[in-house]
Model the fold of this input.
Amino acid sequence: MALTLTHLLIAMAAAFLAGGINSVAGGGTLITLAAVFERMVPFLILFATLLFTVQAPIQRRLSTVSLNSRPRTRKWMIGAMLAQFAVGIYGGYFGAGMSIMMLTALAFMGMEDILQMSAMTSFLSFCTNGVASIFFAASHMVVWPYVLGMMLAAILGGYAAAGVARKIGKVMVRRFVIAVGFTITIVLMVKMF
Done:
């Protein structure tokens, strides 16, 4: 049986929820390893951005075909879920650059439509961050006035960005994602040194 995009979305959401739960279960580790993560993050984002940048030629060289042109098998789905589970763990611990990592993983899984990929990363981010948010709220680590403002800005920004992305086209969105990935890497590296 071929797996549809809906099956993929459900499976990826399950992987991200599991990753978020796993990161929350080790919430104490976050505090202990925060300095280590801060040092690793610029390099992780750089690596993901570089992979995203060269993903199309690598896929052609490896003869990876589009998700739309082949059925997704159970073995493929398990591999995809493991990849997204790892990104979900990272996102629950330290969310910086999680979207570029998800986009890279989705691209290597064979997804080609950057707008569809972007929508999926938004939903998957909601899954893993939702789990982490519950942990942080229960731990009284949330400053609610800031959170409510950020939630409103994120909703409005996401809605506006979707419309802008459709208008400027897929190529420009892809270039923008790459530029943001490199910019975040540079900013974080400058802050680190």
Summary: The chain has a mean pLDDT of 77.
